[in-house]
Amino acid sequence: MSELVFDHVTVRFRHHTAVDDVSLVVRSGTTHGLVGESGSGKSTLARVAVGLERADLGTVRLDGVDLGRAARARRKVQMIFQDPFAALDPRMPVGASVAEGLLATDRKWSRADRATRVRELLDLVHIDPARASERPARFSGGQRQRLTIARALAAEPAVLVADEITSALDVSVQGVVLNLLRELQAELDLTMLFISHNLAVVRYVSDDVTVLRGGRVVEQGATDAVLADPADPYTRELLRSIPVLGRPLDLEA
Amino acid sequence: MLRTFRSPQGVAVLVGLLVVVLATALGPTFFGDAATTRDIANRQAPASLGHLFGTDPLGRDLLARTVVATRLSVLLTLGAVGISVGGGVVLGVIAAVLPRFLRRIVTAFIDILLSFPWLLLALFFSVIWGATSTGAMLAIGFAGIPVFARLVSTLASSVANTDYVHAARLLGSSPLRTATRHVLPNILPPMIVNTAAHASVTLLSFAALSFLGLGVQAPEYDWGRLLNEGSKQIYVEPMAAIGPGIAIVLTGVLFSLLGELLSESGPRRVRAARPAEVAEATTNDENAVVDVERLRISFRSDDGSLTERVHGVDLRIAPGEVVGIVGESGSGKSVTAMAVAGLLGPEALVESERLRFRGIDMRTRPSAAERRTLGLEQAMIFQDPLSSLNPALTVGRQLTEASEVHAGQKRGAATKRALEAMALVRIPEPLQRIRQLPHEFSGGMRQRAMIAMGLMGSPRLIIADEPTTALDVTVQRQVLRALADARERTGAAILLISHDIALVSGFCDRVVVMRDGAIVEQLAVGDLDKAEHPYTRGLIDCVPDMTTDRDRPLPVIGVAAAEEVPV
Amino acid sequence: MTLPPSVTTVDPKDVRGEVLRSFVSSPRLAFVLRRLGRAVISLLIVLVASFFMVQFVPGDPVRAALGPTAPVATVDALRDQLGLDQPLWSQFTHYVSGLLHGDLGTSITSERSVAETLGERLPTTLTLAFLAFVVAAVGAFPIGVATAVSARAGRRRAVDLGVSGLLGVLIAIPNFLLAVLLVAVFSIGLRAFPPAGWGEPSQAVLPVLALAVGPLAYLARIVHVEMLRVLDAPYLTTARSKRLPGRLLYLRHALPNIVAATLTAGGVVLVGLVAGTVLVETVFTVPGIGSTIVSSITAKDYPLIQGLVLVYALLVLGVNLLIDLALVVLDPRSTIAEA
Lengths: 253, 567, 339
Prior knowledge:
- Chain B has 567 residues and is an alpha/beta fold.
- Chain B contains 19 helices and 11 strands.
- At the B-C interface, helix 2, helix 3, helix 4, helix 5 and helix 7 of B face helix 2, helix 6, helix 7, helix 8 and helix 10 of C.
């Protein structure tokens, strides 16, 4: 069991409220999609979940434990960042970066065990383990994103938070990363909060979906239900704005 | 690193360093006698083969004295640099460790110290420690502390804000571990570079203090003191002053070159490229808005070699036609569009059989009349709405200037027209908006202002290079609507560049698929489902849309699966 | 959740700024107030520093000033006159109240009022620095703009390299060395200008040149780099796509965007000029405060040193404040960006 619950979370910055009374549940073993445009507060919510930002009101709980109070439990929630070029230390061999994930397991790793585990993880994300000693500069964007996924998995997280992980990538590479996530989910029974501005991508990976706008929840529910029959006008607006192959864009007001 | 020292500049710096080290270590041993032997008969002698820098009032050889002075000059410099760096690191680290409020006070204090020039700080400290060599070393060393304190805190905070440090924190890496494993390795290289550059400044500072008589005192002497004494006999023998001056400048330049070399990022220069003369092609289409045949574009890299990025592209756009170029990064789609507009910089080498816009040959420098036509009939919209409008000029100014310059319109008439154009692209309250600066506009509104700018002339072609990539989907719809309105109003052809094949298929008449600088396939939008090329098929299938089967993996384009390492 | 201490982030905005921001809505006004606040705090630091400077001198400053041979009675008399035998706090209040009345004390060596000496010599230094700044600024702009435009077009590569090399050399030569060289060439070699003194226009030529050449080269390079940055900006491509004539391209579209960076660099140059007067005045024996500060440090004339340090610091603070205010007027965006 690993259930991540956002309970009436509010985050205020100096002049505005970035997240306004948001509640959502990431059910164990499922992917919860969080979709919204710029300024919707979706990334702030992700940062609250992992402790990079603090909620002014409300709590985030993992299996009932308040993450705002328990630093150790917080390590069970790991994040994959948007920009794979900034998320790896340029001066650290990628193997060492992945091994850094083992810190979060609270176990002592012998040198040999650690090397074995890193090799397994690299295999898991389809990176040649022989390249563990190379620097990030030798890898492409998609490969780097796979490396950061391996690092997050090394932490044996209960929940993964993926924040716009494909928006910095080319469309063909995006497919590779999305396929990897699906594969991992099937293999490892991952629980995931998947954040994106791209409704189609969210639809593809998520079981549940929450639509955010201006820091508030606009609509929430099972992905199929919400997208098949959106109740909120904003969700409908989002849906009709998405270009569909071979169909003229709907440009009417 | 080693390779940089093999360049001519690197060899020069290494040789220079060797000379300085030798003079520092062995100078007094080998030249000590010559530097102290008095030769009253030969005093204040002018420069000669025996005494290249002449002699001083006691007849001592000034070249020998300059060589001997290397040791004191260099050692004092190193001492002062050590104090600056050490003190700066301590202060910078303290500033970083302190609680937020105290930290701000310390950084504000560092800022204030930085606003005073080093000479004033050094003079201040030399009042306290007196006019001796140690006093000067302390004074100059302390005067340099704020510089390094600022450097350390800036570097550390920039590294501390990176995602990889965030990730380490999430994984439970202790602050000490993060500092030693991530922060230190990433701030050390720039620290070393700056230390070398600072050594140069320090050397000159010492020379200045000694020159003022506030540094090294007789009978000791460093280069500054020799310069001071030499300048007193400058009427008799200029070399007495110029000699030590040369030593100061050369060593100073040596240190700063060392810094530049270590940073491995010396000034980069773009080389000009002239379009090669190409024979006139035979057939051409007089009616086409754009007529391009075998377009090849190369870029010159820093080492002067040419890399071809577009390999022989043919493109024709009929009047009023809406054409989309689709491709991933590196496909050459933007570069092609910029070549069509004739806006590539001097670093690009453009070759083609034919490159015409409405009959104007874009390969040659346009005549005044052609410039007018281009100014009025071509419009551009770029990807980044933040930087494509001039931040210093009002939106109105930027809208009206083309019609003022090219169509000879008066300010009032041009403004009236600008208001109409803004209304057409649905910018609300054009009367207020026209007086505003671009930063007061939202991203979508800026892109619409760019479209309005194109409407000021009589556009025959609007080139839109990823105009909505930086925008939200709902804003994307508004911008595309403005673009469609503009086309309806003027009948202009549109060249839309995008990575999103669904977007292009929904907006254009014809799709051109590019990959690695070549056209893979060209299709009418209606024929997209009949696409033959596997890359086109891949592009269509690999992007999930609202109907993608969620139980099956996304199809993957061949090369992306292997993902070659970027060169 | 706070960041781990050793890797904490540094917020560029200072404390006062944050408090002020909640009161003041206009970013321009907030910027001005913040900079004024900073100037006031700097001033206080300078006051305290110039006072404690004498206290920090190791041993007995009075004995140091008068030398080991001076009779004990003279030393005691001077100590009494300087008030150094009183408690520290009353010394400080005495010092500050003296300053407020324009009383900077009396020089030990000349036994004249420090304020009077400053009044005589300050105008000379200001004239020298001002002339040099004008020369540097007027020279730097055309050179920087022309070299940038030429370098971007990339046609005269050899000339561009030559000019940028020359600028590099001029920046590297310290002004006192340049001063000596100028004397050697123009006074001794060509006998064109007098090597020393002050008063005649011809006597000003070499000091102004010696002081101005380095900053001119530095400023020209800043203008050059900034101009190149702006010439490659997307909004200049936009302007080029309108096929505007070069005059409009450079004057209307490019120049306004280099103002902020150039002004800031201009401030650094001006502050550096103020300090540079110390060296140049010494070489050309110009009777300004620069040559005075050197002789007073050598003579350990503490009251005079205190006065001079104070004046120099005030000049620096004044220049910085002036630049900030100029930024507010000429480039409001930069102040908004900071706030």
